[in-house]
Predict the 3D structure of the following.
Amino acid sequence: MKTSKNMNNQQIAQLLKAVSAALLVKGENQFRVQAYDRAAVAIEHATSEVKDLWDDGQLTSLPGVGASIAQHLDELFRTGRVKHFEEIFKGLPEAMFELIQIPGIGPKSAYKLCKALGITKARNAIKKLEKAAKDGEVRKIEGFGEESERDILQNIAEFHRRENRMLLSFAENLAQKIAAYLKKEPAVLRVEPLGSLRRRCATIGDLDLAVATNQPEKVVDHFLRFPQVKQVLNKGSRKASVVLFNGRQVDLRVQEEASFGALLQYFTGSKQHNIALRTLAQKRHLSLSEYGIKKVNGKEKLFRFKTEKAFYNFLGLDWIPPELREDTGEIEAAQKHQLPQLVTPEDIKGDLHIHSDFDVETSHDLGQDGLEKILSVAADLGYEYIAIADHTPSTSQHTSQQIIDLLKRRREYYEQIIYSREKSENKRTIKVFISLEIDILPDGRLAIPEKAFDYLDFAIVSVHSSFRLSRQKMTHRVLTALAAHPKIKILGHPTGRLLNEREGYELDWEALFDLCQKKEKFLEVNAWPNRLDLPDTLVREAVKNGVKLVINTDSHAADQLRVMPYGVYTARRGWAEKKDILNTLSLAELEKKLGV
Ligand SMILES: [Zn+2]
Ligand SMILES: [Zn+2]
């Protein structure tokens, strides 16, 4: 693996995954392997560049990055190399670290494929594997068959499709940094994101920003001096494109204040929305551009718009929130003044899916922080309530009775903390629900015995394994679990997708919506930046079908409670209103709904 002093988060995550893979292939103990995996995931989802954190001496503030990995990263940023890693990589083909990027190819398969096909170098490794699979060479390798050969081809195609897209959280953070820099120039009057970032899509390609100014050239020059700029791709009097050191492309558009509304509208898109808008304008003999609106056959007068609202109003439309601009009925709704009153981050009154550090002896990840720390962040966010939803104890390591005892002990532990906190503190207390995120086993059974529900206020059920069942089996599995107990209220991350990693599973959504409606179950919009699950399109379907949703962060550390807005944006993209979201209710209303 090539390393350097200037690796971005994606490259560092890839490096740590390679270390984990090498350790696994060499038969190292699983805790070391997992530590590297966990650090890789944390870095992939970090909202800041790891190198910046290192600069500030904040490396270990990243959950999952312990002292020893931090030390290796320190060596990397200082010298561009990590001797310990080089030692670990010795004797393994470089190509295998390329192949593990393909979904479905684990370290051991990657190693086997490299050995059997004679692929050694990193360069073109994926291409060579693709060719071998197309030529039917993979099926001849022991342990692989026609089916896995087909899977490999499919997964390579998927890999190419999603390469290089940033998670929304990362893109937003990067945009804010650039915006803060731009605002140092007094000529900059306003900075706004454009394109998919402004529409809050789940993943973002290039970053597009707009600036309102009356001195365009001054602003362009200032932009080009941004310290992170590695290369200037092009520069005009009103626009410029650059590549940053982290490999991301940023495009800037600059416009006078008087026409800024038109620019914002034009470059926010989406393409489909703008096409539909143009069609509507044409019927009225108007033409739209980034500068404003012109009458087609009249005099060449250009109507200019300082705000987007004025632009839309000129066309006889209400202002359309960027999240809705996908040409899926928003223009008609804006004409009839029937746009939804979208839910906002301020509407959220609590978070019902938080993992704590109580050791439930699970095979999944524990949370990193205790209840006290979680409550202090919740207070900071102004919440009325939270729910601790740890994972279930592992079923292979415990008897039913042990699971019941463990969950009983857990309840007593929390009740004690809550009790002493309420006694000792005068400040506003936040209601804590004791919940659990129960694994749905492949056959639809739950990972805890019925008796264990006595120690829960309510429960979430989630799929964490066997993602590749048929649609019919998966539907049966999820529906059975959701209906298994009256205390089960929420289906966690309902599609199981991981952005940039894994597609969601197949499911009969109509049947699920039906069950949710009849039995008053809630579908989660998981706000975790690489989940955003339910996806926006399914949020829309759920809302149309009268299904209620709950927006949760699935935090594994107290500070992660702050990712809530990404879930809200996803819900907004699915046209969800406050009334559609369970955790916009006051505590009293919520307790009634949950029956606790
Ligand atoms: Zn989960
Ligand atoms: Zn969870």
Observations:
- The chain has 23 helices and 17 strands.
- The chain has four domains: 9-162, 166-255, 261-335, 347-594.
- Residues 347-594 form a domain with the TIM Barrel fold (CATH 3.20.20.140).
